[in-house]
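Researcher: Excuse me, tokens okay?
***
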Amino acid sequence: MNINAEFAFYPLGLENFKEIVNQVIGDLSNNNLQIIYTTVSTILYGESEKIIEIIKKIINVYFNKYQAVLEVKFSNACPKPKFSSS
């Protein structure tokens, strides 16, 4: 089943938080998902098991390194996001 997941990762108390957020975003590549990057969150579209696997990986890797907040919304009811062709 295909779903959307919108998430935002917030490392806390770190001056280099942008570098850490960029690491999380970099981990999303090569996952056969469609991805939209916004200024405050990232939207994933694809197979539900793959998306949940990625969210688990973020928790297991980054929560062990940093104090952080991970905000996630899942939906099977929203329409497929419109991805740019560029």
User: Anything to note?
Assistant: The chain has a mean pLDDT of 90. The longest helix spans residues 48-62. The longest strand covers residues 2-11.
